[in-house]
Amino acid sequence: MILAELQEAEGTEHAQAERFYRPELDVVRFLAFTAVFLHHELPRNLTQEPHGAAWDHLSSAAKVVFAGTANAFGFGLPLFFTLSAYLIGTLLLREKEQYGTVNLRAFYIRRMLRIWPLYFFGLAIGCTVAVFVDKRPHDLALFAAFALMVGNWLAILWRTSNPMLPLWSISVEEQFYLFCPLVIRRLSRRGLGVFSWLLIALSDVTLYVLGQQHADADRTIWYNSFAQFQMFGVGLLLCLWMHQRKPTFPLWVRILCLAAGFTCWLVACFAFGAKEMAPAPSGVGMVAGYTMGAVGCLLIMLALLHAERKWLPGWMIWLGRISFGLYVYHGLALKFVLFSFSRTQGYEHFLLCFISSAAVTVMMAATSYRFLETPFLRMKERFEVA
User: What is the pLDDT of residues 8-56, one digit of tens each?
Assistant: First the structure.
C-alpha cells in the first residue's frame, strides 16, 4: 500500500502543480514531524527515565547534551506553525490578488474538511483510552475542551498520559485560523506586515512576563497560544517576503541553512532553556530562546522553499503528505509499543520501542490517509478558490 501511495503521489504531481502543489512543503512537514517524534521518543531527563539505567555509563556532560538535543527537537512543532502561516498566508494573498477579496466561507470549509475528520477521530480514540484503558473518565473534560478548540489552555493544568494529549496544538492552530483570513481580507500587504510584527511583539511580552514568573517552560509557556503566535507571525512575514520571489540557492547553501536552523534550536535550549522540563530561567531568556527557535524555523523553511524536485526524496514527500496522521497517531503507537515491550530493559527496550513505534505510526497514518482523510480531501477540492 505504501508503494502504491508513493507512485500515486509522483504520478499526480504535475496535475497538482497547477493547484499550487509544492512538494518541498511536504518535505518540511516530514522534517517537522520527525523532530516531534524524536522529541517524544528520546529521553529528555535521563535521571528520571524508567529505563534510565541504560544510560548510566554516560558522563554527566553527555547526559546534558543528550537530553538538551531531545528538547531541541520539540521545535518541530513551531516549524509546523510557521509552515501553516506561510502556506495559508500565501494562498489567501493569491486569492485576494485574483478576486479582490477572501472567501471566508470557502476558507473555513476547507479547513474543516482538512482537519476535523481526523482530529475528531483522534479525540474519540483519546476518550476511549481515557475511559476503558487508563480508567480516567475525568479526562473527558479535557477532550471536551479540545473539541471546543481551547484544549491547550486546559492542558496547561491537566496531568495525563493519554496518547492524544499532543492534539493540544490543534487548538492553537485553529485559534490562529479564526482571525488570519479576516486580517488578510481587510489589511493591505503593508498592514499585514505590521500585524505580523505585532503578533511577534505580543508573543515576546507574554514570554517575558511568564519567564519572569519562572513558569513551567515545558507546559505553562509551551502550551500558551500567545507564546506560540510568534511562529505564525514569522510564517506570515516569510510569505510576504517571498511574494514574486523564487530563491535559487545552490544545494550547499540549502544544506547549510538546514544545519544552521537546527543549531538555532540547540542554542534556544542549551543557552536559554526554552524547552527545559523546568521553570523558566528568566524573561529575557525566554524571549531570546523563542526568537532563536523562530529563526531556526525560518532557516529550515528557506532551505527547502523552491528546492529542485531532484533534491527531494519521494519517500519524504509521501511521508510529509500523511504527516497529519503521523502526528495524530504517534502517541497511540508509542503507548501500544511500550505495553508490548514492557518486560524489556535498557538499550533493547529503547531500540525495540523506537523502531516499532515508528513502523506502527506509519502504518496507521497510511491507512488513515487512504480511507479516512482522502474522501474529505476530495470534497475539499470543490471549495478551492486560488
Answer: 444 444 443 356 789 999 999 999 999 999 999 988 876 555 444 566 6
173-206 pLDDT tens trace: 999 999 999 999 999 999 999 999 999 999 999 9
The DSSP letter of residue 216 is B
CA dist 383 and 162 (Å) reads 35
Q: How many CA atoms lie within 13 A of 205 on its CB side?
A: 7
CA distance 184 to 190: 11
Sort 188 into a burial class: Cβ within 10 Å, 0-12 / 13-18 / 19+: exposed
Q: Are 354 and 330 in contact (CB under 8 A)?
A: no
SS3 229: helix
* CB 30 within 8 Å of CB 319: yes
Domain boundaries, the chain: 22-383
- The CA distance from 193 to 237, in Å, is 6
Nearest CA to 352 out of 372, 328, 336 is that of 336
Q: How confident is the model at residue 91 (pLDDT cuts 50, 70, 90)?
A: very high
Closest by CA position to 169, among listed 302, 240, 49, 76: 76
**Cβ distance 230 to 172 under 8 Å?**
no
Cβ 139 vs Cβ 160: under 8 Å: yes
Q: What amino acid is encoded at 287 in this protein?
A: V
The set of residues, in sequence order, having a beta carbon less than 8 Å from that of 351 and lying 6+ positions away, is none
